Amino acid sequence: MTDDAEITSWALAAGRGDQESATRFIRATQQYIWRFVAHLISPSEADDLTQETYLRAMRSLPSFAARSSARTWLLGIARKVAVDHVRAATRRPRTTQLSDRHDVPDAGGSAFDGAVVLNDLLCSLAPDRREAFVATQILGLSYAETAEVCGCPVGTIRSRVARAREDLVAAVDASPWPARRQRGSAAS
Prior knowledge:
Blueprint: H1 4-15, H2 19-40, H3 43-60, H4 70-91, H5 111-123, H6 127-138, H7 143-150, H8 154-174, H9 178-187
Helix pairs in contact: 1-2, 2-3, 2-4, 3-4, 4-7, 6-7, 6-8, 7-8
């Protein structure tokens, strides 16, 4: 993984018009941003939201002053894109979908099945808790970086992550999934 200093230097150079640096900046951060918005909103919308993030970022690069790392700055933009997406979706008339959820996998399920269950669990979290949990526990941001991305104090992020963990444990303990029953019977 490319370090933050190098990514930030590419962002600064891209802001001055260096196309090669812009390409490096996008390549170094694209998968990271995709994962972030996929966990905040949904994998099916992550491509579009990632593209929107980069459209906004590229327009703003000339004014990027590197007061934070470029990665943190870009995650802040991605967060705003996700919030705007949710706001726009709540204004649109709702349609009925055939199914938003997948069948729960059996205990011998594949890694894909496990990812589906994880995504379902993450989607069950309150948005502010999901955002803090994904940023710190999945993307590996520090609490300080996450606080900067989310625009709130570090203590708030710590609290949101702790509550998200509690919510996830409660959801798993309450689930009818075979993996949970196995875990519960092993503890007996």
